[in-house]
Design goal:
465 residues; mainly alpha; 22 helices; 0% strand; globular
Length: 465
């Protein structure tokens, strides 16, 4: 029998996941504008491909910064206000990237100053992504009832993938039927500017959701925390019981320092983040059209195969949402790691023997589907829930910053690794998938059905079997 207000919890979750949608939107919007940025800035200014690469990836610098400061902001401002701050950053970045001249430079006249200003606005958006990537799952995790928390936090990953899919279609719609000269002059601006619409909506809606009861209790605002818990649980007695558990975990002395619960929980959080990137998923997402073209597909076919992969990602993310609270976190992660290892080792073998066939697409889909039903959403679920209340903000910030740093490392090393050997490159990602399975089996606790307050007892007892 359900003893919580499901519709209220779902509404709050949907608002929070707009932050995840903007995470996906902001990171993928650049894909439709790369050629235009090369024409508008790089070619006209006589700059190198290295500068183009730095421009395309500049948002990742902001992501690392945003992830690193997310703990400070979420603890000082609260989860809700930090998400509102992220919305403002997304909005500023969208308009600034679309119109980097900002009434200072002459419109349409590229210069180094204008290029630096464009990168500045992309970094601003990256900070928003870093904040949203840390605080959206944290917010949902702190609001959600324990036995549906996995499903609700997994919705954030669905929103990220859906945001990427939306912006692919938005970019396509803007460019469809237009001359390349128009796209290179004006179209790319519309692509970046389009993000202002969901960013504005997010900023508006986040004002109407509550602060999390865990944060309110952390700040001794127990009456407000109780009201939120009453509305979530449809019961004053249940709300009082949960609040007492929360107060107990946040009021004990000596429990506010990062390593209060030992180093193991922090190491596990960091390794979850690092493995999520070292298994190579962002290579598949960022470079999918290039991968397919390198394997022999025509440009149109490569884009079509990328769209097919995008829909597969959505379907298997939904599968994770439906099963995470039934099967548990560990079984899904280990199963996903095995599927990714099979996919990557097969691609490595096909690459080694220079075999280009439909099998390549099949194994890439096996790989990405395995990720989307496991490490994609479940990593965020665990990062949102494994840390005790007192250290959650700090610990999540460290884990998310590590994730973005690993993302940058893997994405930037892919091209030189491919020049060395494509078979060894994909083989490396396969080995990382195997190691990720062993790591989960040996070190990661099962958190299915446990309250966030139970995490303190879990790490106090070192009971991670």
């Amino acid at each position: 029998m359900r003893n919580y207000n499901l519709s209220y919890v779902i509404i709050i979750t949907l608002v929070a996941t707009i932050g995840g949608l903007l995470f996906g939107y902001d990171t993928a919007v650049i894909s439709g504008a790369v050629e235009s940025l090369e024409v508008f800035f790089i070619n006209k200014l006589g700059l190198s491909k290295f500068i183009l690469g730095a421009t395309v990836s500049s948002a990742l610098i902001g992501c690392i910064i945003g992830g690193a400061i997310s703990g400070l902001l979420s603890n000082r401002l609260g989860r809700k206000r930090t998400l509102f701050t992220a919305a403002i950053l997304f909005f500023i970045s969208a308009l600034g990237s679309a119109y980097p001249e900002t009434f200072i430079f002459s419109y349409g006249e590229p210069s180094m100053g204008l290029l630096l200003t464009f990168n500045f606005y992309r970094i601003i958006g990256g900070i928003g992504v870093g904040l949203a990537s840390a605080v959206c799952p944290m917010y949902i995790g702190e609001i959600a009832p324990a036995h549906i928390r996995g499903r609700l936090v997994s919705c954030n990953q669905f929103a990220i993938i859906f945001g990427m899919l939306i912006v692919y279609f938005v970019n396509w719609g803007i460019a469809k039927g237009q001359l390349s000269s128009w796209i290179h002059d004006l179209g790319w601006r519309y692509m970046f500017g389009s993000e202002a619409i969901p960013a504005g909506l997010f900023g508006l809606l986040i004002l109407f959701v509550p602060e999390t009861p865990r944060y309110l209790a952390l700040r001794q605002r127990n009456e407000k925390a109780l009201r939120v818990l009453e509305k979530i649980n449809n019961s004053k007695d249940k709300a009082q019981e949960i609040l007492q558990e929360i107060i107990q975990t946040v009021s004990e002395t000596g429990k506010g320092k990062l390593f209060s619960y030992g180093k193991t929980v922090i190491i596990i959080g960091i390794l979850l983040s690092v493995f999520q990137q070292f298994i190579g998923i962002n290579v598949a997402l960022y470079y999918a059209p290039t991968i397919f073209k390198n394997l022999g597909a025509a440009t149109d076919s490569a884009m079509l195969q990328t769209i097919v992969m995008g829909f597969v990602n959505v379907v298997f993310t939904v599968l994770a949402i439906l099963t995470v609270d039934k099967w548990g976190r560990k079984p899904l992660l280990i199963t996903g790691s095995i599927g990714m290892a099979i996919g990557m080792f097969a691609i490595a073998g096909l690459s080694y023997f220079n075999i280009i066939s439909m099998a390549t697409l099949v194994f890439i889909i096996i790989y990405t589907a395995s990720f989307m039903m496991s490490w994609g959403p479940i990593c965020w679920v665990l990062i949102a829930e494994i840390f005790p209340n007192k250290i959650r903000g700090q610990a999540v910030a460290i884990a998310v910053a590590a994730q973005w740093a690993a993302n940058y490392l893997i994405s930037s090393t892919y091209p030189p690794m491919m020049e060395l050997s494509s078979a060894l490159t994909y083989g490396f990602y396969g080995v990382m998938a195997v190691l990720s399975a062993i790591f989960v089996w040996r070190m990661v606790p099962e958190t299915k059905g446990k309250t966030l307050e139970a995490m303190e007892k879990l790490w106090t007892r070192r009971d991670i079997q």
